[in-house]
Amino acid sequence: MRPVACNSLARVGNANDGGYVVPLDALAAANALLSFGLSHDWSFERDFKRHNPAALIHCYDHTVSLRTALEYSIGQLPRFILQFKASAFRKIFTWIDYLTFFRADNIHFKQRVWRDRQENSVTIEDVFARLPAACPVFVKMDIEGSEYRVLDDLLRHSQNIVAMAIEFHDVDILSGPFNSFIEKIKRDFYIVHLHGNNMGGMAFHFPIAPEITFLHKRFFNSVPPPSQLKYPVAGLDRPNYAGLPEFTFEF
Q1: Measuring CA to CA, which residue among 76, 75, 18, 68 is closest to residue 48?
Q2: How far is CA 130 from CA 58, 118, 127, 178, in A?
Q3: Most buried of the four, 38, 46, 50, 106, by CB within 10 Å?
Q4: How far is it, in rounded angstroms, from Cα 169 to Cα 186?
């Protein structure tokens, strides 16, 4: 699990939950972002577009719509009144941000990414069929445990994936599938960053919800050395929830 040395890492997205540490050269090399799991935070997608204005942005989340964005915005009003925080004030306008961001080639598909097409679901094959042929893509995935159901299908497209930022879930009870998928992913990718979601808890000295960034091996001219950084990385990593301490890693 120890990341390899990678010099182009930067934080993309929110300062806390919703932000990921990713390699900027992979962002530049991608012609599209596939974002699986959106909620009411598209700060990562917005930052991605800022770094790569020509990229297509395809987001998948069946739980989000203009209606839910409006309900979320209304729900921030009491928080702003009680706490008078700038962050809550900005979230009051989430519904407007939804309307302004998701247009043209920034598309929100109100569908679930799944292993079949039942109940308003799409498969990984459907997702890639909506992109130009052989389109190099960056994948961001946070789908609350469903990653284990679609990763095999996703990895069949490894040749078209430049990098992936994945939040895994339930590692404490799904350690077998988690370890198996990590080994499968590492056939074509290196781990370049590792962070623990401090809202998920710990089990066996490891985060239950680790956020892992993978970069395709073709970005390296030779086998890279292990990273000498301390995790969390100062200046890059931030706690998902500011009210809890960060998880630390020892290798």
Answers
A1: 18
A2: 9, 18, 6, 28
A3: 38
A4: 18
Give the SS3 label for residue 47: helix
Sort strands 32-36 and 137-141 into parallel, antiparallel or unpaired. Answer: parallel
Give, for 137, the enclosing helix (H) or strand (E): strand 137-141
Q: Is 101 within 8 Å of 45 (Cβ atoms)?
A: yes
CA distance linking residue 47 with residue 23, whole number of Å: 13
Which residue in this structure is represented by tokens 């430049």?
A: 162
Strand segments, DSSP code E, in 143-239 are 161-167, 189-196, 202-203, 206-207, 210-216
Q: What pLDDT shows up at residue 76? A: 81
Supply the pLDDT for residue 86. Answer: 66
Looking at residue 78, what is its pLDDT? 78
* CB-count exposure of residue 118 (10 Å: 0-12, 13-18, 19+): exposed
Q: Of 5, 10, 23, 22, whose CA–CA distance to 227 is shortest?
A: 5
Q: Could you tell me how many residues make up the chain?
A: 251
DSSP, res 197:
-
Joined together, the tokens standing for residue 137 give 């893509």
CB 27 within 8 A of CB 3: no
| Residue 22, H or E segment | strand 20-23
Q: Which two tokens stand for residue 160?
A: 């078209």
Amino acid letter at 194?
Answer: L
Nearest to 20 by CA among 162, 211, 168, 191: 211
Q: Which residues of the chain have pLDDT under 50?
A: none
The label of the residue with tokens 């993309």 reads: 12
